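Comment thread on ticket #2218

A.B. wrote:
> Attaching the input chain for the structure job we discussed in standup.
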Amino acid sequence: MAAQTNLYMPASSHVMTGKIVNATGAFSLAAGTATNSLQLTLDNATTNTNWLVVRSLIITSDDASLAHTVAIGISPDAGVTFIPLGNLNVPINAGTLAAATTPSVDALNNSQILGLPKDVAGNKIIVVPAGCQLLVGSLVAVTSGKAIYFSAIVDVY
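C.D. wrote:
> Ran it. Output below, let me know if you need it in another format.
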């Protein structure tokens, strides 16, 4: 499929989800920094030849034992190289019914990731070039039987 030349209207929009669970992480964010982490499968390298624009990235956790630091970045080479955009703190039970007063983490409207570009409406976005991946990983292992969940709204151009 040829790349779309009209960048004002996406070819399609998708809701993409992923999760990090204990002891399943084969993905390392950078040498020596990540344990039991996994990338969110917004994988432009294998599923799409066009650009992606991430319009929303929501993170929740049902881990009642441990708060997590989650790193977000771009990889131009299928996870070999990690170019960090920033780290986010995800509180214990963020966005779950167990902790109704602890909201989920809105990764794009968070003061911990600075310098993201904005769309015409002034909302922060993450642009993922064709052939690249958006990677998300926990810097510490998730408690056994628990998970960190990711939901993203993505436009494909």
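A.B. wrote:
> Thanks. Noting for the ticket: Helices lie at 44-47.
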